[in-house]
Design brief:
- The protein is of the alpha/beta class and 310 residues long.
- The protein has a domain of 214 residues: Rossmann fold (3-Layer(aba) Sandwich), CATH 3.40.50.720.
- Helices cover 43% and strands 15% of the residues.
- It contains ten helices and eleven strands.
- The chain has a six-stranded parallel sheet, with helices on both faces. A three-stranded mixed sheet has the order 6-8-10.
- Helix 6 crosses helix 10.
- The radius of gyration is 19 Å and the shape is globular.
- The N and C termini lie far apart (41 Å).
Length: 310
């Protein structure tokens, strides 16, 4: 599929991940690029979606809008994380079907995988158990969109695909301490501690859990490549191939920021899922994508961006 000359709708295009996808789409010379903002177009309301489609007449929809956050935010608002993410996606897919769009790209989440999935996670493992409890409502809401896409493909020949990115990081990330994910949260903690000459930084959990992180620009290229080249019902993992413990990540960020104080581990806080590490062979086989940014370089870019904004 050629993106040049197409009318493209990107929900969540003003967010962290979405803004990088929009950057690449602008280089593709789309006929029009529509990026609805939540303050002006509440996608939880079906009538707003219909009006949006009537006005924009999109040929391609890339659905990236969701309510997202770290462990703390997921534990505090599980109902909101489930309902808002589910209702936006379910209604958007149905309206997209009714309008006969040419391609639907839905962004899922690694939180959909079962808590004790053997690493590296393979797409076939999605249904082998229940997700980790702290973010299960969000993960299940997103996974239901995969069910809907596959059901629509079977019944209506609906051209929808589902991509599952691992934890993302990079410039423009959310650094709010109440809702941020682990890398921006740690960067902010260490930068603030260094500037304020604090003697120690407190970090959640034991540090034993592992995570895989994908640089946001690499993930954005994956979305574009999949939009152009992939058209099957099976979900596709997007990851970097690097698994790192939270403990090692903490020390890496501490060193990169140049903070010399102590680290205290708060064992009363949850670790979250024990391991997260994806098998990304399907993305390479199906549309030739693999991550290119070394973790150290991506981390430095992210730290430099944050420091330049505060």
């Amino acid at each position: 599929m050629e993106l040049k000359g197409k009318r493209v709708l990107v929900t969540g295009g003003g967010g962290f991940f979405g803004s990088h996808v929009v950057d690449l789409l602008q280089k593709k010379q789309c006929q029009s690029l529509v990026i609805p903002r939540s303050k002006e177009c509440d996608l939880r309301e079906k009538s707003n979606i219909v009006k949006l489609f009537d006005e924009a007449r999109p040929q391609i929809v890339i659905h990236m809008a969701a309510v997202v956050g770290g462990i703390g935010a997921n534990r505090a608002q599980p109902g909101r994380f489930f309902y808002d993410s589910a209702i936006m996606g379910v209604q958007l897919l149905e309206i997209s079907r009714q309008f006969g769009i040419e391609k639907m790209v839905c962004i899922g989440t690694v939180c959909s995988y079962p808590k004790f999935t053997p690493a590296p996670f393979r797409e076939e493992d999605l249904w082998s158990g229940y997700p980790e409890e702290t973010n299960a409502p969000y993960g299940l809401a997103k996974k239901m969109l995969l069910v809907q896409l596959q059901a629509y493909r079977q019944e209506y020949d609906f051209p929808g695909i589902f991509l599952i990115p691992v934890n993302l990081y990079g410039p423009r990330d959310n650094f709010d301490p109440e809702t941020s994910h682990v890398i921006p949260a740690l960067i902010r903690k260490f930068v603030d501690a260094k500037r304020n000459h604090l003697l120690q930084v407190t970090v959640w959990g034991t540090g034993n859990a592992t995570r895989e992180f994908l640089y946001v620009e690499d993930a954005a290229h994956a979305v574009i490549d999949a939009t152009e080249k992939y058209d099957k019902g099976e979900p596709v993992n997007l990851g970097s191939g690097l698994e790192i413990s939270i403990r090692d990540l903490v020390f890496l960020i501490q060193q990169a920021v140049g903070y010399e104080g102590a680290i205290e581990w708060d064992h009363t806080k949850p670790d979250g899922q024990p391991r997260r590490y994806l098998d990304t062979s399907r993305a390479l086989e199906e549309f030739g994508w693999h991550a290119k940014t070394p973790f150290g370089q991506g981390l430095a870019n992210t730290i430099n961006w944050y420091v330049s904004t505060v």
